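Re: that chain you flagged

S.,

Sorry for the slow reply, it's been a week of failed gels. I finally had a moment to sit down with the sequence you sent. For the record, here it is as I used it:
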Amino acid sequence: MATVNLDTAARLDITCRKRDSFQLVLDFGTGIPSDGWLMQVREDHGGTIKLDGFSFVRSSGDATNSKLTISATAAEMNFDAGIYVYDLQNTDQSNAIDGANKVKTYVYGTFKLNDDITG
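Prediction finished late last night. Pasting the structure tokens below so you have them in one place:
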């Protein structure tokens, strides 16, 4: 029996702190799209969105264009401490499959927000 696994998303669990600025640089090792990124933090799969205001910058200084910087402000990181789920997805408008934009999830995992003392 043969099998094929089209789920190439990597698991990456993130721990950060409430009311601190968020900045994460991911190096995918190969060229990635410059636009079409979306990352959402939710209470659980299909649950209430806690954060989706991330900004994305793909580096253009390296030869492979493989690095993505994901950021959120300290104000955006002001929600209840806890353990949530997230994923990082891209909709590539320049790469169509049967006339529809190619959608790919790159990473997923838990998003743990530790409580803050100051603030």
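What I noticed first: The longest strand covers residues 82-97.

Talk soon,
D.
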